[in-house]
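for ur thesis appendix - CxC3 like cysteine cluster domain-containing protein. copy paste whatever u need, i formatted it the way the template wanted (i think)
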Amino acid sequence: MEFLCGGCDLEAHKKNVFHDREALFHGYLEPIPPTKAVNMGDNGQPHFFEQVCLLPLPAPKAICECTHEIEVIPGKHIYVITMNGRYDVCLLLIACPACLVEWTPDVKELLKYRYWPSTTNCQTLYRFDVFEAFSHIKVSAPSMSRHAFLKLLEHRSVQAGRPGNVCADAFQKSFFEYCFCKHTEEVMCEVNDFYCPACHPDMLAVCCDGNRKHYRFIKSRGYVHITQTFMSISKTTTCHRKSCM
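the 3d part is after this line
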């Protein structure tokens, strides 16, 4: 936890948009939304004013062949859903004052920095860790619904002084798209999910607790012994074939 003044808070908030803040009002700490900044008045009372939060993405150094310095201005307002809840930010909009060329991150740029667009106009973005956490929860607790998971995110947003509404239908649609793309990527990379070092190459059954099975097999002493046995058998077979020839 850091204690900052109003000026230092503005500078720190520009570098780290996804952090939660609190201010002391009448002897109590109250959360401050990211779109608000605090300035101490002459009477010692804090005053709120609006501030723009940009999505933290690296901006290109040049968007045209002009020598003029480019301007970074806020673009359209979007919603970003993270494990800490919902954040209201703005997309980057870089413009050249000479030739009036503009640049804003597209879908490819957003995916590169692990932001999943919910719609084609990128109105709502999901961090990849939200989908990964939800998929892990579904494995550990299959009875947990997406509504309960989103209620958790909404609660964390409200506790931090931010709007907490998250559309459940849009989340489900985006999660299914993310899972399909991950499956397509694994198929292209030839990932074999059913490979088991404990019973390979002749699999007799599918274990419902495969992760624990792999862990116990690798950590056991028999793993090294079986591996060495397979190596010795393969060497013996090779030598026997050479002698027969």
